[in-house]
Amino acid sequence: MFSSPFISQPSSVSQIMLRVLLALIPGIAFYVWYFGPAILVSLTLASITALVTEALMLKLRNRPIKPFISDNTALLTAWLLALSIPPLAPWWLIVVGTAFAIAVSKHLYGGLGSNPFNPAMIGYAVLIISFPAPMTHWITPHSVDGMSLNFAAQWSYIFSGMLPSGLTLDAVTMATPLDTLKTQLHLGQSVADIRDMPIFGRLAGHGSEMVAAGFALGGLYLLFTRIISWHLPVVYLGTLFAVAGLFHVLDPAHYVAPLFHWFSGAAMIGAFFILTDPVTSPTTQKGKIIFAAGAAVLTYLIRVFGGFPDGVAFATLLMNICVPLIDIYTQPKVFGKKGAGK
């Protein structure tokens, strides 16, 4: 028989980050299944770039390299960025975005724990603003037209920009479901007509809806193991559902159903892996609720009325700005202070 007290040793940063990386694997597996292995090349390039940049910045700052390089935070930034950009993006795009995320967004603010903005989302924002053309070439899922690039062809295009003879980039890439929806709505089509296009599945886009489901599965693992709390993902997805549902009820011909927004773009990976970054999100429970709700509203507004097809990255960064203010005004009353028990 064991007797109390039972004291558990808290997990280290490297252990927590490793579990988060493992939770991304179901989504990555679906990504490979539906879109091919190019995403693995992107993940590898981003990982190598992140580790090299991390080591270089630590050396320049006269900090010990081994403890920080092994905490897996740089790898998580690399993976989140790689999963946010097209898998056929040229190698230099991945390297530039990842290096900027680590060097500027993380270390120039003081390193781990001091950065006010999510580094992966800063890297994404820099790429989408600076290089919009290559950031729109998303691979067409195998289930849509039966055409697919094997690993050698994807590898060749990433590093040389060359496709097999007889193939053009337009033949193997497409706009995202969110981008297609927005473009076709501007051309005067109704949601019902647009949803009949072959790139759309039951909930969102062919393949992409299963990738989102994979990230949701990984997110549930993080909730079950208490790596993250329920406040951010539940409030974010709930608010996004409510706002999208309200618009859909008012005008179903021009506003798509809420589940489409859940399973399109970066909503799921944003809810469970991006917004839950402990450094750039609020520390209080009430603050997390405000943060998540604000991010959800901004995501919807950017997606539907803004200039970018997906709004998760910019919604996250805009709410990151508000975190210090949110934390100040949502701190619980100090025990013993007058009115604390009310």
Compact overview of the structure:
The protein is mostly helical and about 350 residues long. Helix content is about 60%, strand content about 0%. The mean pLDDT is about 90.
Task: Give your account of this protein's structure.
With 342 residues, the protein is mainly alpha-helical. It folds into 2 domains: 13-173, no CATH class; 175-328, no CATH class. Helix content is 61%, strand content 1%. It contains 18 helices and 2 strands. The chain has a two-stranded antiparallel sheet with strand order 1-2. Helix 1 (13-23) packs antiparallel against helix 13 and helix 13 runs parallel beside helix 16 (267-274). The protein is globular, with a radius of gyration of 21 Å.
SSE series: HHHHHHHEHHHEHHHHHHHH
Q: Structural class of the secondary structure composition?
A: mainly alpha
Instruction: Bin the helical content.
Output: 55-70%
Helix run count:
18
- The strands making up the biggest β-sheet line up spatially as 1-2
Gross morphology is globular
According to DSSP, the number of beta strands is 2
Mean of the pLDDT scores? 89
Q: How many distinct domains?
A: 2
Report how far the terminal alpha carbons are from each other.
43 Å
Rg (C-alpha, Å): 21 Å
Specify the biggest β-sheet: 2 strands, antiparallel
Strand content: under 5%
Unreliable stretches:
none
Characteristic key phrases:
mainly alpha; 1% strand; 61% helix; 342 residues
